[in-house]
Amino acid sequence: MTEPYSLAAEPWLPVATVEGEREFIRLRDIGRTDLLRIDTGRADCDISVTEFMIGLIAISMGPTDNYDWPDRFETPPTPDEIDAAIAPFVHALVLDGDGPRFFQDFENLELLNDAAREPIASLFMETPAGHFVKEGTISALSRRGAALALIALQTSAPTGGRGHFTSLRGGGGASTLVVPRPDNKSPTLWQLIWANVPDGYRIGVDDVEKVLPWLVPTRCADKAGGTTPEHVHQAQAFFGMPRRIRLTFSPGNGERCAITGDTDGVVVASYVTRPNGTKYLTHTWRHPLSPYYKTKDKELGEIWLPLHFKAAGVGYRDWIGLTLKSKADKKEETSLPADVVSTFLHSRAVDIDLDVRQPNSVGLLAAGYAMDNMKPLDFTEAGLPLISTGNTERDYHLAGCATAMVQAAEAASQLLLSALKTALYTDNKKAQPESSKAPLAAARARFWADTENTFYDTLRALALKAPDDDDAKVYVEAKEAWREAIRTAALAIFDDLAPIDAPDSPDLKNIVNARSMLFFGLSGPIIWKALGVEQPEKAEKKAKGTRRKAA
Q1: Which residues share a beta bridge with 375?
Q2: What is this structure's pTM?
Q3: What is the pLDDT of residues 194-216, one digit of tens each?
Q4: Dihedral, CA atoms, 181, 182, 185, 188, nearest 10 degrees?
């Protein structure tokens, strides 16, 4: 009989090294300076496993004071220190065996009559449980691979039918990781993890069962109702377990794991599941690695919910909600970045001598599933710059300016699409702007890509000047320059796609009228209003009127 597979002892963690190789390491080795990142071979597993590691370090050896964090960033823990820190959790890191199983239901579900057996491929977001799985897709996982897949599913679970609940942040919630670049270099794996470990999450022995739900009987929704942090512990945000699952282990026959590519003497080809697991009440939780936005619920009133990506690809349209706190009409906050992002920008960066106003000093990794009615469409991952003034109040002003710039860009892109439809399509029904195959969709994507660098350059310049007043002249000038940038980009795209002198151009009159419409639209009140800046002609008339009265 094989020994239980312990994630505290086995080399199960796939990592990328500075030499460009992939290696499986033990938990005790994550402080090695030649390690760069988690490397499972799947982007969704990479981010989920990284989050798990952040959570494990947070509860076992998270910072206890302001001096502890910078010291640990510069000097990673030794293998013996990590072993000592995770010792109280070793019994929770066993994947199989007769006792509690890692990220699996406390109860032996195979003994229950209403349990259902699913192929192992159903652990993955692209093949939800209960759906037909094509033969030959994912037939078996090694124990390493099964651990990685379990973490990813429980962390990002979509709705799986009646009684099969979503993850603590709802299906596929967005995650954001701070990526510090000391000396303009990529961080080590340890530095990446430690930069995102939240304050105040280290726990004592008495709280272990409140944090790691697989150590105790499941809080079943049909009996216990919803689960909030008050029922368990805030640190369960890292270890939420909405699905009742028990893996089925069997002898391996030399097959390769669908994730890791390795062979194992014991494999997992199926699992047993049961409905009515833990139903996390999403609005009551704050995951330290997720951005949130305020919304209104008919029954609950104003609530904060975790952000979800709406489409594959993340760009500067999404930047504000991921990086800075923003307010509506200079009053109440409407969006909040992840707690670890705010903490890093306003305290930790200074502790390690990083100037967040400078380019390439720190970045943001944003990742998550784009969902459609809680069904996963695609996994998106993007690196974005983190830009801050280093001051909370001034960051509100920076966020306000960025919001206005995005609104103006959105208005300009709509004007561009409308002009192209007039120029290129006599029958507007032939144009489908939202279709991935339509020329208009490509034009829209190009517009956002062509204006992206200017957007970030503008914010970096503003961060360095850091004015105290959001109506300051420097903000007005930045918005005026931005209007010119988006105007130039939109007209250039139009001229490329609807050239007047092309021999195969459609109705020339349509092109001329459309360009004229675009030109005046980009100089008109729609853009100025979006920017929150008075149109120059109106401002000039108002000034003349004031001078006449004075005279």
Answers
A1: 372
A2: 0.91
A3: 999 999 999 999 999 999 999 99
A4: -80
